[in-house]
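On clarity, I found the account of how folds are encoded harder to follow than it need be. Since the whole study asks how a given chain folds, the encoding of that fold should be made plain. For illustration, here is how one protein appears when written out as sequence plus structure tokens:
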Amino acid sequence: MRRLFAVGVLLIAAGCTTEPLSEPLPPPEPSAVPTLPDVAEPVSVTGLDPCAAVDVDTLLLLELPEAGTPITYSDGTSCEWEKDGSTGRRLVVTMVERDPAATYIDMPGAEVVDVDGFPAVIGPGKHTHRCQFSVRTMSNSGYTVGYGAADGDVEKPCGVARQVAVQVAAKLRDR
């Protein structure tokens, strides 16, 4: 019995060691901040009314009112369309005299994309019901398009926001 007890103690003691069972995990690598390319053909947003930047057909398709609400800021102007009711549908287009993409490029989850030849950032705030594109049109100006729909998933809001961002790019170039 003593022998059995001694063997049991040795087995337990052998399992108790101060040495680690495996090598420690290496620290996580810092995530790289994406970079925005330069604008190949710069276009100023000055003079484009954001309320006139979205086609009426698009607004009707989204079941938004034809007339948006203009808002003025110190560095730009916005237009907001919002649907009454439970859909939570809201579209905001903002023209700014600064680089809106640079504002969001270093935020977690930022994604660099191309919007009709302009570099852009999707995010922040790419959630299940809203999405924002921040588009650089010059080194010191650009626009944002944000769309949200409480009744949809992220693919639809990002698809709508991209479609509107492309429309705004075309209007800027066609002036």
In short: Helices lie at 2-15, 56-61, 100-104, 155-173. The longest strand covers residues 130-138.
